[in-house]
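During the reporting period the student researcher (J.K.) took over the structure-prediction task from the postdoctoral fellow and processed the backlog of single-chain submissions. One of the processed entries is reproduced below for the supervisory committee.
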Amino acid sequence: MRLLWGSGRRGRVRFLLMSLGSALGVACLAAVLTIPSILAAHDTRAAAREPRPGTSNVVYREFRDPYGSQLLHRVFVARTASGLAPAPPGIDKLPGPGEAIVSPKLSKALAANPKAAGLVPGRVTGTIAPEGLGGSDDLYAYIGTTPAELPEAEALGSFGTGRTWQPVVDSSTLDILRFVLGCIVLLPLVIFLSVCARLSGESRARRLAALRLVGLSVKDTLRVNAGESVAAALVGAVVGLFGYLGLNELMALIGLPGLHWYPADGRPDWLTVVVCLVGCPALAWIVGRFSARRAAVSPISVRRTNERKPPKKYGILLLIPGLGVISGYCALSVMGRDPSGGSFTTVLIPSAVLVTGVGLVFGLAPITAWLAQRMAGAVKSLPVALAMRRMEVDPGSSLRVVTGLVLLVFGASLTQGVLVELDQVSRRTAPLQEYNIRLNEISPAQRKAMAEVPGVQASTVSYSSWQPLDGSDVGQADLVVGTCAQLAAYTERATGCVDGRVMQLRDDRTTYEYDPKAGEQYSFALKDGRKITFTVPHERIDVRPWDLSVFESGTLLVPPSLLSSDLADTDGVLTLLSDADPATIRSVLDGIGAIAPTASVEPVGIVIDSLAQLTVIRSLLVVGMVLGLVIGVAAFVVSVADRAMERRGQVTALALLGAGAGTLRAVQVVQVVLPLVVGLGAAIVAGWLAESSYLITGGGAVHWDWEGLPLLFGCALGVVLAAALASVPMVRRHVDPEHIRRD
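J.K. obtained the following structure tokens:
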């Protein structure tokens, strides 16, 4: 530290930059490590409030319904006798008949929308404390009632189970999330911390070589360099932890789409603190000792800048097994074989992806040096030749500039594959989404307003035939109101339809529970209690609906002109249709909830829990990508600035030899752009193969994400242009004799 502070302003600025870089890295590391803790805290509180059947003087019944795109959880309780009753976390006692205790978020929703009061009957007498809620955005209520009003209730034993039945993210998906966050954040983070620990590497190496030449031992020389790096990393780790604590307090108030937490959930535990305070300085110690070894062992070669050894080619060997495995799975898919499933695959693919990412880091140096050597001998441009010779001599310095961005693009491709796979699992494979709402739960005005919700493409109504009141099992038929144009637009195929006639839909691929035959008659109830009869026609429409649909086989298609408007609403269902992308589904569900908050909505073929989980995963992956972007850009900026400072002597020498400002800037840009183009090209190819192998082994319908390739190419092109522009101002054609080395 005496050598550091005595070396002048440059040494102190370098120490400050190293500390700030470590602080940024540790803050990102703490954010990644606390994500599982946030999810675990949410699930622990949710498990503690789960009702358990047993024996007590209380009966209960749970309801989970969509409220817009969110899940509304209600627990109705009723006392069967006096005495003590179990109470869940967050409240002192269960509500009595006509009372309700709700979460703060639900209390605000009820106040903002009086129509939703029917969802929580009774007087709100209190709110649930944080220990009784999974997160601050929970819609949860305990509603008191009487046993007579609670049919099919269970006896309540206690509250609390070993695990919740509705985790924020299920365990298998959480493992995938951890792996992806590790690839897109932790790998670039290690590179970034290594870059910060090697700031002003050449200047430090020359000073260490001078110490070695005046008599300092090899071991003490290594300790001097490692000690400076550790001190900077330790200061940065402390600053980064405090910075993350402040950011956590702010983000807990704002939250993420689909995920809100309390500040205490995101505070790092002791293990995270130890990893940050010990792991970052330990990495700095290793890097410091490794980077100073040449100065300690061969100080004269450092002072006189002898020819450096070419980079070792063992890094390329890491690419061979990684790319071999993922390419093999892609080849099996092309050959028509299905390699999905199996415990061996679940271990092999992540390992191959990880090895490929590490191979990209260590394999770029020899590849770039070889390419620079070939180009330097072939080109006739002076700036390009100078840049290639510089990269041939020292490819590692250029790669420190671009490695973070290369890993970011590689991780982005893998993230796309995870989102595609989760999207297949969490929603229907059909391009259309249907929403069913019972007509007796909404008014005609609400029905009209729902058809105009943004995102809704069409609406129709369907009815079921009249059922005897004695409960006997008789044949049943359904009819849907629509035209041939609507049928063709909202099914995969529909042939043989004739407008103005009642016709039967028929899909030869499926069977129908009640198969109406031609000539059979079915009665449909009217609002006044009378019935109207429809005869099953001989004319049929060959139809192929999208998965589960109101246009299912056996249904009668009735034109609007032939249908009485007096059919009973108790037997009718309003069906809305929209696109099937998750954002549109959430928007439509929110629109329906705003119009009729008490109506029960069935999003056909999907589960609200799955939709909510997909939202959380998307949010966490976006956070990971943002952290990866911050780390990659920070590594680029730090490396470019440090590299420009280290090259001032060479730039001054070239300027004295007559090189113009344009030539010097062109050399700087080419030195950055070439390894970046090589690295990003390799990252796109390797990342797309890794993504495809993940999709292939996942067993989904999509194996090749062709739609994601233009996005990756666009991102890579933007990175190259931004890097080229950012490199231009880093070169100053200023002749300073102080920068000319005199050995």
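The committee noted the following: The CA atoms of residues 90 and 132 lie 4 Å apart.
J.K. will present the remaining backlog at the next meeting.
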